[in-house]
Amino acid sequence: MSFDIKSCQLMHFGPHRAIAGRVVGAVRVRIGEDFLGTHTDYTLDLKVKADIGAASSEAIRHALLGHAARQLNKLKLRHQQRMPMAAE
Fold first, then answer.
1. Which of 19, 48, 51, 60 is the S-S candidate for 67 at Cβ 3.0 to 4.6 Å?
2. What values do phi and psi take at 44, rounded to 5?
3. What is the model's pTM?
């Protein structure tokens, strides 16, 4: 089983409606996965957030992509865990 991240793209971001200092956005991720001999390519749209306050656009982008990376690492870890095999 393989789980490969092909690309990440920050789609949009802006200030949170209710929480001051929080920025929210969306990251689109392209993923390729091989499972039981079948290759599948698909996209995920991740909701991301960062409590960064007033910062430059580049710092905000970096923080949001960092949040997406943490989410993807958790997802990849779950996909790489071995499935239990049935006893014979």
1. 48
2. -125, 140
3. 0.78
